[in-house]
Amino acid sequence: MIELSELTKRYGGKTAVEGLTFAVRPGVVTGFLGPNGAGKSTTMRMILGLDRPTSGDVRIDGKRYDQLPEPLTYIGALLEARSVHPGRTAYHHLLCLAQSNGVPERRIGEVLDLVGLSGVARKRPKGFSLGMGQRLGIASALLGDPKILMFDEPVNGLDPEGIHWIRNLMKQLASDGRTVFVSSHLMSEMALTADHLVVIGQGRLLADTSMARFIEENSRPYVQVRSPDPERLRVSLAGAGLRPVPQPDGGFEVEGVPAARVGEIAAANGLVLHELSRRQASLEEAFMRLTHGSVEYQAREG
Length: 302
Prior knowledge:
Blueprint: E1 2-11, E2 14-24, E3 29-33, H1 40-47, E4 55-60, E5 75-78, H2 90-100, H3 106-115, H4 130-142, E6 148-152, H5 160-175, E7 179-183, H6 187-193, E8 196-201, E9 204-210, H7 211-217, E10 222-226, H8 230-239, E11 245-246, E12 252-255, H9 259-268, E13 275-279, H10 283-291
Parallel strand pairs: 3-7, 3-8, 5-6, 6-7
Antiparallel strand pairs: 1-2, 1-4, 8-9, 10-12, 10-13, 11-12
Helix pairs in contact: 2-3, 3-4, 7-10
């Protein structure tokens, strides 16, 4: 488990993280979301002892990172996949990590095989593609067979097969009872992977909840309805006290009523329907709705 308590980090007069308190629990994949500049990378660096908090505390299974005797056996992390000595082969990069953390050498072959890099184990990573570099970074995180794993943008550079692989790997690690903490800007991928979400904006906690509840609380469910006689449909819905909102395809969005009620109104007025469906916002839409006031770097539409 990762536990943050009132974690704060300031750089001069700028506050990057302010009063963060949350726990990342085992058995689920926890997604870590926030706009650019929200403080996600700073938070992850403080978890790993790479940045010292201005105040507050962060614990890994009850200990600070610098108190862990062989840290890779407690927590494995992918923050910068390219953080590899260019003169070492993939195998020797992992060997150095293994020897410094009391990890048996046989584990190197296991993780290289797991991430699909056995065939390039004796090659230098400076010639690796971005996707291969990501796989080596994931191998490094898994090397100590830790109970806690932390990944920052793990699908960067991966092809569709690789994205499918890492998604299933994270789910499997969580189902094994491990703690999995993953940050990504790819909302569609996060929606398929995470069970729980921690969302921050401008360094502050905005949400700490399940995926389903996050979408429910930060979206507006509505009914999508479409008929070959849109004007009659509009009049019928309005006559029943509803407020149909016209859509570009000729259909209507109707809020505040179940789909069954819309269908009953149409049937009572002898209307043929080509579409009647309940819609829910996507994770991306819910995220944008929650964080719109916390975006530090925002481009203007042309």
